Amino acid sequence: MSPAELAILAAAVFAAAGLQGSIGFGAGLVAAPVIALVEPSLLPALVVMLAAIVTLLVTIRERAHLDLKGAGWALAGRIPGSILGAWLVVSLPAAALSWAVAGCVLAGVGLAFLGWRPVPRRRSLMVAGALSGIMGTATSVGGAPMAIVWQGQPPARLRGTMSAFFLVGSLVSVLLLAAAGTVTAPVLAALAWLSPAVVAGFGLSRWISRYLDAARLRRLALAASTGGALLLVARLLLGG
């Protein structure tokens, strides 16, 4: 990658980590479309690994507010979903995965704007966890199902519980992607270069949460996600 491309990715990762640290989701929604535009071969492994870093930091910060029971039921669905997602990574070409990223982002945004609010019970948590595993492992965008099922929770509880869920889920996805051979040397090199941007974005989230409420941050994440996905769709349609 050129220095300009690396700078673009660092800016996207910085913003993604800031949003994830503030509202508990959004890293994949924001970062994945930009990475798919700049260097699609890094997907989905790079975003999953970067997400593991920021979710670890948020889980530690919000550990007093975790809903461990709810996260456990969601993880029961996430693991089989992740296995299916890893199979999709090795079965689909890069262009198909890019379309999947855009489709997952726009579908998640659409459902959020429609205002669907399922009750976070055992069955809905397991179904959402499975969908998150499939989407997160195959496309690095797995936040939408969990954000929908856990919406309405107090901000600290939402951030902490979602981060704990995504931390375990991301680690499982990384192991499956490594077994599938997609955690390559370029991915590890990009991870090393972009990790400081993740830490900086997490630091920014502590400041943001003091001045912006969760609803406003959620709208910001959805707007950024929509813009990134539409840019990706435009590039795919133009054959670039």
UniProtKB/TrEMBL annotation:
**GO cellular component terms attached to this protein's record:** plasma membrane
Which InterPro entries does this chain map to?
TM_pro_TauE-like (IPR002781), TSUP (IPR052017)
**What does the UniProt entry say about where the protein is found?**
Cell membrane
The record's keywords, sorted A to Z, are: Cell membrane, Membrane, Transmembrane, Transmembrane helix, Transport
| Main subcellular localisation | membrane
Q: What membrane topology is given?
A: Multi-pass membrane protein
In terms of Pfam families, this protein maps to:
TauE
Transmembrane segment boundaries: 41-60, 72-90, 96-116, 128-150, 187-208, 220-238
Q: Which PANTHER family match?
A: MEMBRANE TRANSPORTER PROTEIN, TRANSMEMBRANE PROTEIN YFCA
The family classification in the record reads: Belongs to the 4-toluene sulfonate uptake permease (TSUP) (TC 2.A.102) family.
Q: What is the name of this protein?
A: Probable membrane transporter protein
